[in-house]
Amino acid sequence: MRNSGPWRTAKLREIATIYSGGTPSRDTPAFWDGDIPWLTPGELSGDEKAITTHTKDSLTDVGLRSSGAVLMPPGSLLVTTRATLGACTIAGVPMATNQGFKNLIFDTDVADPHFYRYLIAGMGRELARRASGTTFLEVSGREFGDIEVGVPPLGEQQHVVEALNAVTDSELAIEASIAKLSMIRSEIMRQLFRGLGDPKTQLGQVARVSSGSTPSRACDEYWHSGTIPWVRTAEVNFTVIRETEEHVTQRAVTQIGLKVYPKNTVLLAMYGEGVTRGRSALLGTAAAVNQATAAISCDANRLDYRYLYYWLELSYEEIRKIGHGSNQTNLNGSLVESIPIPLPTLQGQIEVVQPLRALDERLAAESDILTKLRTLKKGMANDLLAGETRFRDTPQLE
Q1: pLDDT for 16-53, tens place per residue?
Q2: Lowest-confidence range among 31-35, 57-61, 262-266, 394-398?
């Protein structure tokens, strides 16, 4: 699939006309709620759509005229260049944007906007290098127009887009499958536990609750070249924890009495910002934890750790209500011990969790495929968009 000769290069302004967006006054109702879609960078953060047809806000004709924005035709490439850098989408209908965008209308004889959507989306470092500003980074129109890009033959651009779109379609299909399985899992979990009756046993009667600590950051010997996983509260997020971002040393464990909990210990976040407090997790490896995380060791004769893990996940909202504190409603060891749980026999607990374990295995398999597919897509994009891999015959697609 090799092609001879490098691509020619050009500045963006040489293959496209570039426009900025604008915002009309919010104090004038006549400017808003019209028929013209108006896009902001926040609508692209996290989940970028290849083509955008709907926006949260809309302008009237008079609002557009007062904003300084330009009505971009379908097929225009809209790129965020303020605060959020490099998020891209293609206008599927005529629309305007705010000033956080640079918008491109390409010369369609030489450039496919879908090709440059993929290309510019991967140019985060280049955009950051060209950005300036103290409150937030912004790429000026001049700097944006000066960016040099490869300009392969139009037919080759279209073949690159076709290849990357095929992988993207597979990615979206797996994401949809994971979302559907997750919904099914949530409903099955509710149904399974609903049949157990009211929870009457306090957790502290069938499990031991403790917590960890944070070794001094000033002592390098506690952290440098550490090999023992150390769980932060932010990592407690309804999952099996097999790896952690940080590790501590054996010296930290020995000198400050930091406990290393075994695999299958159930964790519960006792406090944290936003949605963190009340989240649960399961250790998939031996690890230490911080002081904001409750480590729950089940009495193996009375409580199955997997059963407890699922029950805590199901009870997330109720657990958050039992916290207390002046500035933020924290949990503590005593409150965790007081959490009520329904307690069937061990065999009954195992029967409850079996369908959930089967679903989790399917979800894990789908997630693994998705991770591998994303790795493949990244490698393909790097090679194809840099011209490292070329298509031999690249006639323009009809």
Answers
A1: 999 999 999 999 999 999 999 999 999 997 666 899 99
A2: 394-398
- The residues pairing with 144 across neighbouring beta strands, listed in sequence order, are none
Single-letter amino acid, residue 202: Q
Cβ neighbours for 77, distance < 8 A, ≥ 6 positions apart: 16, 88, 89, 90, 91, 103, 104, 106, 113, 116, 117, 120
CB 55 within 8 A of CB 39: yes
Please report, in angstroms and rounded to a whole number, the separation of the first and last CA atoms in the chain.
21
Compute the chain's Rg from CA coordinates: 27
Enclosing H/E stretch for 377: helix 346-385
315 torsion bin: left (phi>0), alpha (psi -120 to 50), beta (else): alpha
pLDDT band at 195; cut points 50, 70, 90: confident
Non-local (6+) Cβ contacts of 304 within 8 A are 298, 346, 349, 350, 353
**pLDDT tens for each residue of 56-68:** 999 999 999 999 9
- For residue 282, count CB atoms less than 10 angstroms from its CB and return exposed for 0-12, middle for 13-18, buried for 19 or more: buried
Average pLDDT over residues 270-284: 90
The conformation of residue 280, written as its DSSP 8-state character, comes to E
d(CA 168, CA 165): 5
CB 62 within 8 A of CB 30: yes
Domains in the chain with CATH codes? 8-151 (3.90.220.20), 153-196+344-393 (1.10.287.1120), 198-342 (3.90.220.20)
In order of 53, 306, 337, 342, 359, the CA distances from 347 in angstroms are: 53, 12, 23, 14, 19
Q: What is the pTM of this model?
A: 0.79
Helix or strand holding residue 350 (H, E): helix 346-385
Residue that is written with structure tokens 């007081």 in the block: 338
Question: CB-based contacts of 81: which residues, under 8 Å, 6+ apart?
Answer: 100, 101, 102, 127, 131, 138, 139, 144
